[in-house]
Write a structure and sequence with these properties.
Blueprint: H1 4-20, E1 27-37, E2 40-50, H2 55-58, H3 63-80, E3 85-90, H4 93-115, E4 119-120, H5 126-137, E5 142-147, E6 154-159
Parallel strand pairs: 2-3
Antiparallel strand pairs: 1-2, 4-6, 5-6
Helix pairs in contact: 4-5
């Protein structure tokens, strides 16, 4: 379980990390929550950073954001001697991206149903493909699969 002291340590360490990167004007908000998984409840630490110029920390297609999240997870899990999931977002980029991907999935699925032709989406990272798959798993008229390798891996949407 994540305690208030742990939250304070996470907030301080993230702020120091940003300071050492010479990132000025950053506001850091940290909260804990719980995620229900197949293995039971998983502790989650939500880190929301707000900055005047977030591009450097988000990176192209969110790759830097994803890498920072992974880095924070390793550092903080080791420091606090607890295992928890890190949900890092910068200027609501991730939140907006998830909404965009869900809308994209729906519009592509509608297009596939209308044209009766499969549609291949542009290559995207695994976490983005997962959002597309999860959103379209709710539908009975289309199916999804990933194809390709490495950075060229993409989602294909087709009729069932």
């Amino acid at each position: 379980m994540i305690e208030d002291l742990d939250i304070a340590i996470v907030k301080q360490d993230v702020a120091v990390f940003l300071q050492k990167m010479t990132i000025d004007g950053a506001s850091v908000k940290v909260e804990s929550s719980s995620l229900n998984t197949n293995e039971g409840n998983q502790d989650v630490v939500n880190i929301n950073i707000t900055l005047p110029d977030p591009k450097m920390l988000i990176g192209h297609s969110g790759y830097t954001l994803f890498d920072l999240s992974h880095l924070f997870k390793i550092i903080l899990n080791k420091k606090l001697k607890k295992y928890f999931y890190i949900n890092l977002d910068i200027n609501d980029y991730k939140k907006k991206k998830v909404e965009f991907l869900k809308n994209l999935a729906e519009s592509v699925a509608d297009e596939v149903v209308l044209t009766k032709e499969k549609k291949v989406l542009l290559p995207m990272p695994a976490y983005e493909r997962r959002i597309i798959h999860a959103k379209l798993a709710e539908r009975q008229d289309v199916k999804t699969e990933s194809q390709g390798e490495g950075l060229d891996r993409c989602v294909v949407v087709a009729l069932r």
